[in-house]
Specification:
Number of domains: 2
CATH class of the largest domain: Alpha Beta
Distance between the termini: 51 Å
Radius of gyration: 20 Å
Order of helices and strands: HHHHHHHEEEEEHHEHEHEEEE
Structural class: alpha/beta
Shape: globular
CATH topology of the largest domain: Rossmann fold
Largest sheet: 11 strands, mixed
Oligomer: single chain
Strand content: 15-25%
CATH architecture of the largest domain: 3-Layer(aba) Sandwich
Strand order of the largest sheet: 3-2-4-11-10-9-8-7-1-5-6
Number of helices: 11
């Protein structure tokens, strides 16, 4: 490991400290410990560049052993179980699947004439493909079914809260490695991706409940690159519905040229397009952070920003010019 490589990896973990601190102080402390540990940095340097990120390391440790209590335990686990840890990080990917993000998607979906065929790119286990199966409370105002997953959202800026959930006639997900919500091992990995912290218990309960919904009514899962498989997904859409292609926290994982090609493709297709991504990931959605996800996402429809949301759901702020967005 060269000094430059060590500094790059350590810098990524130090940047993660700021991102994690508000919601997961333990992960912030662990990231600081990694940044200062030559042994852990050497372990990471032996992995491919795309497999070194904090989310993946901490999730793999959590999946195999539970979350380390401190830096000393983390270093010991890396030293004692490095082979299994490496294999897990190579085999798995950061595929956080937070159904609470549907709380930001629902008001936008309600602007679109239905019935809807949903295509999610980067779908993980597809838990965001069920916005009509979840129950919501916007500032306490209930929307949708009462006997299923509950998603609470605090709002500002005049969010156009819908009176009901949309009619969905097709659910199709595209992912390089789709996870099966009915598979216990895949569920265990999804649970390992949830950061420890004050909201972890609520997120895990919601994840388990949403996985039960998805397991009872499986979506169509297509394996492969989103650009390659998008035509296949479109071919599966039944007639007489509006196609909505959407994604949440996906595009930063693409190379810049693939991301640009995807954006160009979406602008040309006769579909509606909802994105929930960090600022600046899509043109016209603000300034992109030099590293990390930040504390808010921009929700856009057909490339036009409508709102900002908390990354894992729970908060939605409608932008001042967002209400006139129902037309393409």
């Amino acid at each position: 490991m060269t000094e430059d490589e060590r500094d790059r990896i350590a810098g990524g973990y130090r940047a993660f400290v700021e991102e994690a601190a508000p919601t997961s102080p333990l992960y912030a402390r662990l990231a600081e410990e990694v940044a200062g540990s030559d042994d852990v940095l050497s372990f990471l340097a032996d992995l491919p560049v795309g497999k070194r990120q904090p989310n993946l390391l901490f999730a793999a440790l959590r999946y195999l052993h539970g979350t380390p209590a401190d830096g000393a335990q983390l270093r010991r686990l890396v030293a004692d179980d490095g082979e299994r840890l490496r294999a897990t990080m190579l085999a798995r990917a950061t595929q956080t699947n937070e159904p609470a993000r549907c709380g930001a998607l629902l008001p936008v979906l309600a602007l679109i004439e239905g019935p809807l065929a949903l295509i999610e790119v980067g779908s993980s286990a597809g838990l965001c493909l069920y916005p009509d199966r979840y129950g919501y409370a916007y500032d306490g105002v209930p929307v949708g079914p009462r006997d299923t997953v509950r998603i609470d959202v605090t709002t500002s800026g005049g969010v156009p809260v819908p009176g009901d959930v949309p009619a969905v006639v097709a659910r199709i997900g595209i992912d390089l490695n789709p996870l099966d919500p009915a598979d216990p091992d895949d569920r265990a990995w999804l649970r390992a991706l949830v950061w420890p912290g004050a909201n972890a218990g609520e997120r895990l309960r919601r994840l388990d409940a949403a996985a039960e919904v998805a397991a009872r009514e499986p979506a169509t899962a297509l394996t492969g690159d989103l650009l390659d498989r998008l035509p296949d997904a479109l071919a599966l859409v039944p007639p007489g519905c509006t196609v909505v292609v959407f994604h949440t926290a996906v595009l930063p994982y693409l190379r810049s040229e693939a991301r640009a090609a995807f954006v160009d493709r979406m602008r040309d297709l006769p579909v509606r397009w909802i994105a929930q991504e960090a600022p600046g990931v899509l043109p016209g959605t603000g300034e992109r952070r030099p590293s990390g996800w930040g504390t808010e996402f921009v929700v856009s429809l057909d490339g036009r920003p409508l709102a900002v949301s908390a990354p894992h759901g729970g908060r939605l702020e409608w932008l001042p010019d967002g209400l006139g967005a129902s037309g393409r």
